[in-house]
Structures are given as structure tokens and as C-alpha cells.
Amino acid sequence: MSVTAHTILRDVFGYRSFRPGQEAIIETITGGEDVLAVMPTGAGKSLCFQIPAILDRRLTVVVSPLVALIDDQAAALRANGVSVAAIHSGHDREFNVAEWKRVRAGDVSLLYMSPERLMTPRMIAALQQIGAGLFVVDEAHCISKWGANFRPEYERLGELKSAFPEAGIAAFTATADRATQADIAEKLFSGRGRIVVQGFDRPNLYLAVEPKRDWKRQLITFLKDRRDESGVVYCLSRRATDETAELLAGEGFNAIAYHAGHAPEVRKANQARFMRENAIMVATVAFGMGIDKPDIRFVCHLNLPASMEAYYQEIGRAGRDGMPADTQLFFGLDDVRLRRQFIENDGEDREHILREHKRLDALLAYAEAPGCRRVSLLAYFDEEAGPCGHCDNCYAPPKVIDGTREAQALFGIIEGTGETFGGAHIVDVLRGLETEKIRSNGHERLKGYGAGGAKTKTYWQAFVRQAVAGRYLSINIQKFGALELTARGKSVLAGQSAFELREIVISTRDKPASRPKRSAPSLSARDETLLSALKSLRLEFARERSVPAYVIFSDATLMEMASARPGTLDELASVNGVGPKKLGEFGSAFLALTRG
Ligand code: ADP
Ligand code: MG
Ligand code: ZN
User: Fold this and answer.
1) 472 in ligand 1 pocket by Cβ < 6 Å?
2) Ligand 1 pocket, mutate which of 9, 46, 82 (most atoms under 8 A from CB)
3) Ligand 1 pocket test: which of 16, 19, 547 has the largest number of ligand atoms within 8 Å of its C-beta?
4) pLDDT tens digits, residue range 403-449?
5) Is 339 exposed, middle or buried (0-12, 13-18, 19+ CB in 10 A)?
6) CATH number reported for the structural domain that contains residue 345 in this entry
7) Do 387 and 406 belong together in one domain?
């Protein structure tokens, strides 16, 4: 069968070969089996359902969460000569009616829709009449409450299978741990289908984590060499988002703010600006779902994300084009307390709450990990890997030292004060301060009072964070963030086990963490000149058609053109990403440049 799939890959999309996993997923779909495919961002999920859709004479319905995303995908397909329709609330009624007429006439291979449009009784009945062959659920993690971006509109997609027992279901996501995968498969096809996990690694992303000290300085230091790049800075609150955007604008950065408190028109305009310009989007997590901008060069978190899945998804927006991109997470113990609080306030389901706490634990352990970040990130998704050489800990390995005696002093204070106080007070007692709270509680009489006086507050805060991350201590939110000893912590206190920690280095100057220089793909100076000419030409075509630039040709395709310098249309056709439709439409214009 792959002969036909391969023919379409070449003759419609202009690609030479499949990427890892694509062919197997296409075979599963064309074989009539329901499937959930988990593939990293940029791996090429769209082709996995677009090719079966083109092969199948029946209609394929694609559900996608974001109007902008739908329009861009439809434009990209049209550019390759594929007949596609899109129906959603961003179009007026007249347009949608015309699109529907084309669908009913059997003129289109793929129909893109938002979930709320699809799941109306009228639309379902109409599609039952036409006889859709395949339903594709893109960004399928949105259907799961366990996932990183639950969307209520997605929940009803669970009814598709009973409404269309003859049709196949193919779901795609870049982010789902095992529990979320099982939940998606259960909801969409009662678990009776295949789950294909293509892997999670994004080797082009540099991973780095740093504790927060003076976050404004740390952020500006991080951004200093990134003035001409596009990136996202994630904040926890709307207020912090506006303030941070202002701060950056004041420092001369092209910064844009985005959060759900802005009017829809403002959000739309800001997003459009970000798609066009090299800019820094300062945003809450309301921003990012379905953002297809391929050249986001960095993602920076100013707070701890909600979970490992959320973190993976948020950093995953960087480097879709496969070129090197940086990620940076800043976090502090306050973030941990806040996150715990959010979880506690998230409904009544104790099991759900416990699970979310565990997930946060995993993220915390990642943040304080002494070893390779990638190893620990991938381990969360049940994937094994060796040290990557492309994260902060691989690049500058932290020293691991024995901290048993210090841990015993700290844990002793926690036990001695009845496990009812938060980190700030515990550290005060340990350092022998004279505060009102200490006096009124008589804590200066405790054994161990002042035992940690030789070290700074910052040092002990870091120490506590590591103890929490290593699950020696836990934060009890119902007791207002009190630190409690876990079984592991008690064992250290009793002298039954040791406590290792990554050496805490307190630097007074805010030296940026060293990181490797990003190695840009190497083109000669002459090729670079050609590349910029090709990019300008691409922009002209994109403007003329009001589509994003990558719909014309991707960066990767232009780079191959610049170095291969095709001299004939045939040679141009052999460049990866140049299909017959694009060759006919843009070929001679680009050839005029490459021929030189
Ligand atoms: P995902 O949805 O998995 O994040 P996309 O489907 O958007 O990724 O694909 C990412 C990019 O890779 C797109 O520009 C797409 O055209 C390109 N691509 C997909 N499959 C191939 C392939 N087999 N060869 C070359 N490029 C591909
Ligand atoms: Mg996609
Ligand atoms: Zn590493």
C-alpha cells in the first residue's frame, strides 16, 4: 500500500521520504483501525491524516481547536492543490454555507471544523447523510481533563464513535503521559484502537532551569542576546503579564502582552503581530494553543508550570522548524506553594487532586535534578535516554555533595515545631533570628535553634527546595503551606539514610548561566545572500495571497534551494518541499533567483 501513500507524499507534497513514524500511522489509518498517535511537535502529524484523507474517496472531517490554525492548515493544503473546506465561527454565514455546498457536492477531501460546529445535531445528521469516512481529532489532549489543556468543547467528541460507527477515528497530540493517553483512547474509541507513541524527544531544544533570585535581572540577562528573535515569556497572572511586557518594552524590547483579560480584538491583533514580526510575546498560558509559528527561538517561564505535561507542551512551542531553540525555566518555592494551592482548589475529586500533586512533584524533581534534564523529562513520559549534552546540567554538571548533617538540623527544627510552620519561619529558627514569631512560640529554646546561622537565607531556601523536590519534605496546603517530614525525611533525621544535594552556589553577582552558543546551520556567505532574496520573494507571494510565509515554502525548503542552486525546473522540483502545484505556481520566479 505504501506505494500509493508514497506517491502522494511525492506528487502532492513534494517530499522525498517519510519521517519516522509517519508511514506506520498512515497504514494504521488506511487499514481501518482507530488510532491515537503521540508525536512531538514539528514531527509531521498533519501529513499522517492528510495522506489517508486524500487516498480515501469519502470525506475526512478534521477537528481542530483554533480558528487561526484551521485557516493556516487549509491554506497550506490549497497551496499543494488539495481540495479542502473550512467551517468555523471566524467566517460569516455566507462563506460557511458556500463551503458546505462544496462538501455536499463531494468536491473536497478534507473538511476542517471547530468542535462546537461539528457537534450540533444538524451537522451530525448532515454528515451522516454524506457518509464521512474518517474523523481526525487534532490536539487530542484537549479532550482529557487529565491533560494539559482541557477544553469543554472537546468533551462531546466522545459521542462521535456512536454517531458514526462506520467511520474511523484518528487522534493526534504531542503531549500526553500514559494516563492521559489511556483517557483519550477511552473517550474517543472506548480504548479499542491503537496507541502509537512516536516519542517525545525534541533534540533541538536546549533545556535549562534556574532558581529565581532577582527575576527581572535574570530575565533581561536571558533576553539580552535575543533582541532580534521571536520568543514567548510565560507569566502566571494577568497582572504579571502586563507588568513584564511593560518592563521589557521599557528596556527596548519588542514586547507584546497577551492574556484572557484583553478584549478579543486586542488578543487577535496581538497574536497577528506576533505571527508577523520578530517579537517577544509575554503571556499567560492562555496563549500558545495551536500557535504554528515555526521560528519561535525561545520559551522562558517566569513561574513553575502546572505540571510536567504543561511544561513540555509550553516549551514545545519553540523550534517547530527543527532549528536550535532555547528554553529557560525560572522558579522559586513560592511558585510551589501557589501551584499546590491551585490544585487544592480545583474541585472535590480527591483522587484527581492527589494525581495532580504527584505530577507537580515530578516537575519539581525535574527542576532540581542534578543530572541530565532530558533524561528526567523523557523518563516522565516513559522514554529512556542517555545524557543529552544539550541541557544546563550536561553542559555544566552540578556537584553533588553530602548534606546529611545540615538536613538533620533542618528536619529537626521542623519536627520540633510540630510540622506546622512554613519554610520562611523554619529557616528563621534554623538561622537563630530573633523575630516576634520565634519569641511568642518559644522557638529560641529549641535544640538546633541557630544551628544554621553560618549560611544565608538564600542558601537555606535552596536547601528546602531541594528537600521538597527530593520528597524528603512535603508542603501541606491545608495547613497553610506547613512543611512536613515524609517517610524519607524521617529516615534521614533518624540517621538511617543519607541526604545528597546538588551543591548550592550563591553568587552575589547575577552572572548569566553559561550556555553553549547556538550553532546555526551553516550556509556560505554567498548562499546567505541568495537565501534572503528567496525569503523576500516568498514574502511577496505570501502577502499577495494573505497566507503565512511558510505556506509558500518552509525555511528548510528555501535553505535547500539556496545551497543546491537549481538551474532548471526539473532540478527545482527535486528540492524537498517543492510539489508539482507549487512548482507550477512559483517555480519560474524562484528559479530566476537560484539560476543567478
Ligand atoms: P506537527 O503537527 O507534528 O507539529 P506539522 O504537521 O505541522 O507538525 O509538520 C511540521 C513541518 O514538517 C511542516 O512544515 C511539514 O510540511 C513538514 N513535514 C512533514 N512531513 C514531512 C516529510 N516527510 N518530509 C519533509 N517535511 C515534512
Ligand atoms: Mg499539528
Ligand atoms: Zn542533558
Assistant:
1) no
2) 46
3) 19
4) 999 999 999 999 999 999 999 999 999 999 999 999 999 999 999 99
5) buried
6) 3.40.50.300
7) no
